[in-house]
Amino acid sequence: MLRLLIALFAAHGLLAAPRQAAAQDGGYPVQTTARTQFVFLNGEVVRREGNQTTALAQNVKLRNGTKINYKNGIVEMPADKVNPQGKKLTLRENDYVRADGGVVFATPASAAAARGAAVPAPGAKYEPYVQRGPGYGAPAEQVPLLTKKIELLTQKIDLLSQGRPDMPDTRAIDEQLARLDAQLTAPK
């Protein structure tokens, strides 16, 4: 009986070990919607979906690789061409991280702190500042590129579904797709 209890306890410890390692490695991947926000409120990060907030019990990792520490609001952006080491910033009250990894700052002071700039005078006018990770361009710039990508993928599907006994050569289309992908993911 004692051996059984020890075995169960050891098995539980082994099952819990990967979870602890994932938390130290930057958090757990989370499912998000376009409305998901991770907001720094009252000294910690909470998840907000529309008007409903939920407390977090662990660090999270977004699809684009952005990591959010729920206890202290430190956000780690993934590495890109502009920031090969990635970028770290600390959220302040009411700042939030969107599901796409963009950080929205609630005040001019928190935006200035994230940029490493001087804090503006109280009452100063400012432009909203959003910190984005790699590959975020203006939608107006990306729509034509995405439209072209759809056209190329349609051409490739048409070529591959002709029912030919030999495999058609799609290298030219693949090269165009690779160039488009590079444009879509290039830092802006």
Report what the structure shows.
By secondary structure, the protein is of the alpha+beta class. The protein folds into two domains: 27-131, no CATH class; 139-185. It contains four helices and eleven strands; from the N terminus they run H-E-E-E-E-E-E-E-E-E-E-H-E-H-H. It has helices at residues 2-24, 108-115, 139-160, 171-185, and strands spanning 28-29, 36-41, 44-49, 52-55, 60-61, 67-68, 74-77, 87-90, 96-98, 103-104, 130-131. The strands form two sheets. A six-stranded antiparallel β-sheet has the order 4-3-2-9-10-11, with no helix packed on it. Helix 3 runs antiparallel to helix 4 (171-185). It is elongated. Residues 14-24 have low confidence and may be disordered.
List the helices and strands and how they pair.
Elements: H1 2-24, E1 28-29, E2 36-41, E3 44-49, E4 52-55, E5 60-61, E6 67-68, E7 74-77, E8 87-90, E9 96-98, E10 103-104, H2 108-115, E11 130-131, H3 139-160, H4 171-185
Parallel strand pairs: 1-5
Antiparallel strand pairs: 2-3, 2-9, 3-4, 5-6, 6-7, 7-8, 9-10, 10-11
Helix pairs in contact: 3-4
What does the average pLDDT come to?
A: 77
As a percent range, the share of helical residues equals 25-40%
Q: Segments where pLDDT lies below 50 for 5+ residues? A: 14-24
Anisotropy-based shape: elongated
| Terminal residue distance | 63 Å
How many beta-strand elements? 11
The main pleated sheet reads as: 6 strands, antiparallel
Helix tally equals 4
Structural class: alpha+beta
Order of helices and strands: HEEEEEEEEEEHEHH
Question: How are the strands ordered across the major sheet?
Answer: 4-3-2-9-10-11
Radius of gyration: 23 Å
The number of domains is: 2
Question: In percent terms, what proportion of residues is strand?
Answer: 15-25%
